[in-house]
Design brief:
The chain is built from three helices and seven strands, in the order H-H-E-E-H-E-E-E-E-E. By secondary structure, it is an alpha+beta fold.
Length: 118
């Protein structure tokens, strides 16, 4: 798959809420996920086996997700970016809205890193 193909497939699956399928189909087994320092206590993880725990830790912080958006991808070479965000009720901070940019790096037809800026 090309970077363009992966970007569009990731968007389609995200909009369907099929995150496990995204990782198994589009990500390299040794992929890295990078968060801003100290945000939501998630940090950086490496290896797909750690992605599920990171996702569960993130989701456990919220009692309800009200809405989610995801832009169309912007592709340049081996990278693509997405604007995304959500409106959710955090268990301790109350209702929050977050907008972010996600940057993905593709090598050999698989996502090898994702990095979030918010």
């Amino acid at each position: 798959m090309t970077t363009q193909d992966i970007a569009h497939r990731l968007v389609a699956l995200s909009r369907e809420g099929k995150f496990e399928q995204i990782y198994s189909e589009l990500y390299d087994a040794n992929a890295k996920s990078i968060e801003p320092d100290n945000e939501f206590g998630l940090g950086t993880v490496e290896g797909l086996h750690n992605f599920a725990a990171k996702g569960a830790a993130f989701n456990a912080q919220f009692s309800e997700f009200h809405s989610f958006y995801l832009s169309e991808p912007v592709v340049a070479g081996d990278y693509f970016s997405l604007a995304m965000g959500y409106d959710a009720t955090h268990k301790t901070a109350g209702r929050v809205q977050l907008d972010e940019i996600a940057l993905y790096h593709v090598k050999n037809g698989k996502v090898v890193s994702e990095q979030f800026f918010y």
